[in-house]
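[step 3/7] fold_predict: job queued, chain A
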Amino acid sequence: MIGKKDSRPILVNVSEVIITRAIITEYDLPRETIQPHDVVVDADGIAWYSSFGEQNLGKLDPRSGKVTEFPIALNKPGFPSVPVGQPC
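[step 4/7] structure written:
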């Protein structure tokens, strides 16, 4: 799940669901411009996401809360690109 806390984006990990009970942990992300999208959790419990508003692939370790980002250097040829929060 993805949400906002104090206008900062957060990534929420639903780690246990039993009928109607859930334990939800929220993680602060390092910048307001991160817009996590298509979150996938791998076999080691690491959450991977694409940043919808930026050219980055993100990795969140829920045990430490550490976020690592990997820039995607190549834009799709002919695809418009405008920095988040900037006028078109």
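[step 5/7] annotate
The chain has one domain: 2-71.
The longest strand covers residues 8-18.
exit 0
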